[in-house]
Amino acid sequence: VPGRPDPSVPPSGVSCSGCGAELQCRDDAAPGFVPAEKYRSLSEGPSGAMGLRAAVCQRCWLLARHGRALRLQLPPEQHRRVVSAALRRPPRHGRGPLLLYILDVMELPDPVLAELPGLLAPDVPVAGLLVVGNKVDLLPAHSPGHLGRLRQRVAEACARAGLRGAPLVDVRLVSAKTGFGLEGLVSRLQRSWRCAGDVYLLGATNSGKSTLFNALLRSDYCKSRAPDVVNRATVSSWPGTTLNLLKFPIINPTCDRIFRREERLKEEATKTEDELSSEEKKYLNHLKKQGYLVGEVGRTFQRPKSSTVVEFDPDELSYSMDEDPSHSPKKREEREEFTYNEVKDARWCFDTPGIVKENCVLNLLTEKEIKLVLPTQAIIPRTFILKPGMVLVLAALGRVDYLEGEKPAWFSVMASNLLPVYISTLSKVDAVYEKHASQELLKVPMGGEERMKEFPPLVPQDITLKGVGTTEAVADIKLSSAGWVAVTAHAEDKLLLRAYTPEGTALVVREPPLLPYISTIRGARIPGTAAYRTKKPPSVVENLKTTGKR
Fold first, then answer.
1. Is the pLDDT of residue 45 over 50?
2. What is the pLDDT of residues 415-442, one digit of tens each?
3. Sign of CA dihedral 546, 292, 295, 286
4. Measured distance CA(113)–CA(117) in Å, rounded
5. What pLDDT, in 10s, does the model give residues 331-390?
6. DSSP secondary structure letters along 75-118
7. Which domains does the chain have, with CATH numbers?
8. pTM (2 decimals)?
9. Quick one: 50 exposed, middle or buried, by C-beta within 10 A (0-12, 13-18, 19+)?
């Protein structure tokens, strides 16, 4: 990576607008690094260090422009310290903050939720806790009422976590990426919390906090000028992208503003897809390819855009036919700032660093491997029927052996569509794994024999289950963050399974399963194989009037 440090230059005191780290050019392995040449060009102008206000660090620049991640010398506990220090601040405006805890519904039971009380100070009151189950767009509507069941699973996870010191206000399901449920979340916040105090977005790494922060920044939840002043947070699949606090000011939801907002939502709810513009249809179709649940996030309170002023420079035209035109040096765009009166009594929405999950398989993977493991599009379930003695292998990251049972059982894989699934037998699977791990057949990890020398071995855990019927899964076998396998068996049939995950990662048996009827959306059996054909179920669009067409 180009760019040299200069240890003689002191830190700037200005935060990176993408991750929140303090911008500096002293250490290229520390957060907030900007190459010394770029740092000087931005900070040595008439504005001094304030010239860095719109800049991002080299790490954010590489993530946003090239999808590359730089490893930082940053211990995992550093993220906890930043979050804990923010939550232990004395209450502003005489009231404690509202905690907006974002969890990835696919990661239930959330490994960080139970740690939340330990981050709070006993003498600093918290006004409430609103839990947001994110990434519901990735899961298919496998049966009627599936969102209600998902919401119940999230509520049960909160109860098991034994949260204390922060009363649970509500549980919401959203997709920060496709916009599903976000208008409802904004309405809930404005009606119950209004503008009573600050709001903190909390959660584990890769839960979608920064994506939600960016979506709220372009919604009715922030001041109308905020999108022009506050830069969007850097978003990537690399765990721990946000390193410090980012924030935007919350709009005061007066009665007039709530009325105008409700009128906009009512008007939009009368539209059909046919009435959308070509650009809106194109964007909607793009979102439908990304997820099963899609919503539109609009803005009621927008500052009218000023007309563009074209500066006329006669010197641009004063050249002869045999000369090239000379271009005047471009003026640096003036960055908009909030006025003192706009923010003197403001309540703020803060994006905080994600809490690093322990015993997570993502901590063992490279940047390229993470992009294959983390699903970014709607997951298409892959169902297989296995007899005792058969084995299901998910990449080289996990496997499930069917050791004993009276009848065949169905195993439905919910994982990134890019991860391969291989079906083998107990007598052959070890040889297959040894030969193809880190090769094209199993794909992840990648890098050949040298990569597998440093990768931990798979370790087993025996699991006993009793079937509840051929249409309902009895449990999910969650292979750390690589995905899970829903097991469906005949009623009263006892199954002995042996599941494997890399040493040092968590294997969880999730009962009841997250999507109990997932095996029922399988298609026809593929002749000569254990697999079923599965078509992607249709997407559902929120906030649009249905036309009767599917």
1. yes
2. 999 999 999 999 999 999 999 998 899 9
3. negative
4. 9
5. 445 556 677 677 778 888 988 888 888 899 999 998 899 999 999 999 999 999 999 999
6. -THHHHHHHHHHHTSPPBTTBPPEEEEEEEGGGPSPTTGGGHHH
7. 1-73 (no CATH), 76-266+340-358 (3.40.50.300), 362-536 (no CATH)
8. 0.83
9. middle
